[in-house]
Amino acid sequence: MIVPGLILGIALLIAGGTALVHGASQVASRLGISPMVVGLTVVAFGTSTPELVVNVLGVLRGETALAFGNVVGSNIANIALVLGASALVRPVALQSCVVQREVPLLLLASVALTVMALDVPSLGLEGIISGTESVLLLGLFGVFLTLSARSVLRSRDEEPLFAGVENSPLSVYATPGRFGWLYVAGGIVLLYVGGDVTVRFAVELATSLGLSIAIIGLLVVAVGTSMPELVTSVIAALRDESDLALGNVVGSNIFNALFVLPVSSLAGAIPVPRHGVADLLFSLALAAVLVPVFFLGEARLGRVIGSALLITYVLWALLRLA
Fold this sequence. Notes:
There is one protein chain. This protein has 322 residues and is mainly alpha-helical. Helix content is 77%, strand content 2%. It contains 13 helices and four strands. The chain is globular, with a radius of gyration of 19 Å.
């Protein structure tokens, strides 16, 4: 019953996140907020709510390694698995100025998180994400939101990203409705129940297999909670809206690094598990790969690099299980 229970928990998380996004988008539409804003804010937040719920509940229950592994594993899966799969469907080209500004911010966020997780006894630094470091990361998140808002205001008229939002896979959430708050309430309930079930069965799975809870967070829970990003990005790629596919991944990773993990650590300090720094460095390397891919040459992620990302993810997963 352990594996079915874990699958049930992740399914409830995804259902809760979907309901929350649907309801919040309906409420926003009834308040007169444009579909563009809904698509680029509410949906981007909603696809990361499963990670947030699992992390906070995990930390409150003392399973800090699960919280760490979930965030780092999600960021690795988003680039290597989600973006790689999207590139196989259709090459991902970068046209949006907003997303172009977010790629370096992702690299900065990855560097900041890695530096804070380093264990350097000679300098009096421990391998732990503390409350003070969390406040600094949240401050960087505030800077990211400010820069993104300015980019939206300056570029909205000529942005190809905005031109496709009305017909994007995100726009389905932006239809007016009378029961938005019920969806929001139901989504919150499903997220809590799903998070509770996921944490409980993740711990049981790690115990039964003799694996660390960090590995389960990296390879099982992280992939499960990344399913909304995978579905959204692949659908966007199928509709030839590659900026939305890339923006979804980049925005989700920034949100995970600068909001989900810091908020989780405010509930309790998160020690860096064994091999945690190596996982962070791998996540940083994947983020660094995006810079030359999208800022040099044709500024597109083709099927060859997409295949390489998928193969790299599989090799990394096998290495972590060894």
